[in-house]
Amino acid sequence: MIHLPRHLTWFSRNIISTKGTLNELREHLPRFQKVPFEIKGEGINPYLFMIVRDRIKDNERSVSTRSDDDTVQIPVSIVSKEYQLVQHHDVLNALAEVLQQNGFDLDQIQAQLSLTKYGERMWFSLTLPAHSHNPSVYTYFDPGDGHPVHLTVNALNSVDKITALEIKLLWYRLICSNGLIYGDNIDFKEIHRTDTLDVDAIRKFLQKQFAKEQFEKEKQRLLKWWETQVNIEDWLENVVSKKWGIHAAARTQHIAKTGKDAKFKMVSVPVKNQKVKYTDLATTPNSEGEVPGVNAPVTNAYGISQILSWLANQQGTLQEGIKRMEDIPKLMQALLRNN
Description:
By secondary structure, the chain is α+β, with helices and mostly antiparallel strands. The protein has helices at 22-26, 88-101, 200-209, 212-227, 233-244, 246-258, 301-313, 318-337, and strands spanning 9-10, 13-14, 16-20, 32-39, 43-53, 74-80, 111-115, 121-127, 140-141, 149-158, 165-173, 178-181, 188-190, 260-263, 286-290.
């Protein structure tokens, strides 16, 4: 499962996380209702509805510390008539059904659940074990460095319109807790509208991704990255600096050379209004310690991809971390074109 940084926020809302099996984590999920948008005894707006979190029952767990908020209904959003409410429970049930169909024992799968205070936003991550009872299902391999990557299923859902329902598959590297997008443009994304959203589509999507053909395609891509030697200087200047900024480019170079992360500060630039390059940062950075799983110096494309994954995973907000993970395939394509 993806290990999220502490004190992570999701569009300014704090996130609380817990771990367990799918059945254990279900007990932490609140339920919601779509109710009329009205002032009791006064008037009702026929064009809008409220999304309301139900009361937390005494026999249910709560990720957060129990409080008076648990004993009452809490409004979490205002939506249009066309909005389709998708319960977090429905998403987990769809995941569980596909996993069972593919021979996985749900009691043996550990997962991580992250929720905002009232549970309106959910991030769910589970790493598939190395083996299932179905011999045609493949979930992990070693690209060549002795550190296997495992297939991880991640789900995002919100009932307050902040994000669509999304299912993302990642390669998860246990030694460094990094996530790397599985494939190009194969994630599942549906907005919450009554004319488009189909929860059954989650099952169909995952069933297709678990197929041997898709797994082999992704495996060969990472193996090619492992075998490809790269020079990163121009790529850092012309691609990474423009996409993620000069500090990310400098950190990438430093980790590749030393295996250690670092913080950089600006130094004076000789000419006023001159374009600032990542090499203009201080050449004696403050060390942030070893990056797990990096065998410096890094010279192949696969090692560089893991450094990018590390940087994406260090973001202070969930949305920025996800965005950076989605950037990595294109950054890698640019790197391979340059070599």
